[in-house]
Amino acid sequence: MDETRVMVVDDEEIVCDRLKNHLEKNDLRVATFTNSKQALAALEEERFDVVVTDLKMAGATGLDVLQNVRQRGHPTQVIIITGYGSIEAAREAEAVGAYDFVCKPFELKDLTKKVKKAAKRARRGVGLPKIEG
Q1: Can you say how many angstroms the Cα of residue 96 is from the centroid of all Cα atoms in its chain?
Q2: Is 28 exposed, middle or buried (0-12, 13-18, 19+ CB in 10 A)?
Q3: pTM of structure
Q4: Rounded to whole angstroms, how far apart are CA atoms 124 and 133?
C-alpha cells in the first residue's frame, strides 16, 4: 500500500465510507472523521499528505480545517468538497489555499486522480507559506 496518508472529513458517514473504500482500493492509506473537532485533534497527532474535507459541517468548517493545516506550515494539500458549490465559495477556498474545490456529487475516479496529484505535490514539499494566528 502507498504511504500516502489521506484524511477525509465529512459529517455524512456514508461519504466517508465511500471515499475510504475507493481510495484504499487505489492503494492510499485513509483515516476518516465525521466531525471537524476529531479531525482537528488528529492533525495535532499525525501528518497527512492530503485532506479531503466537506465545506459545511457542524462546528468547524472545511475552511477552518484548511486554515489549521496552513498554520502548521506543512505541505499538506487540502481538497474542499461540497454540496453547496458556488463561485464565491470556490474563490474563498482558493484564497485561503485550497488545492482544489469539488462539488458533490462527484465521480470517485476523478476525485482519486485529484488526490493522487495533490499527494505528489505534498511529497515534493510544495505548500503555501505558514500563516500565523
Answers
A1: 13
A2: buried
A3: 0.90
A4: 26
Query: Per residue of the chain (133 residues), what is the pLDDT tens digit?
Result: 458 999 999 999 999 999 999 999 999 999 999 988 899 999 999 999 999 999 988 888 888 899 888 888 778 999 999 887 678 888 888 888 899 999 989 999 999 999 999 999 998 876 655 555 4
- Coil vs helix vs strand at 29: strand
Could you tell me the domains of the chain? Answer: 5-122 (3.40.50.2300)
Q: How many CA atoms lie within 13 A of 23 on its CB side?
A: 27
Cβ 12 vs Cβ 104: under 8 Å = no
Q: Is the peptide bond before 75 cis (omega within 30 degrees of 0)?
A: no
Of 50, 36, 37, the residue nearest 119 (C-alpha): 50
Nearest-angstrom CA–CA distance, 126 and 10? 25
Q: What are the grid coordinates assigned to 55, written together?
A: 465545506
- Of 37, 69, 49, the residue nearest 114 (C-alpha): 49
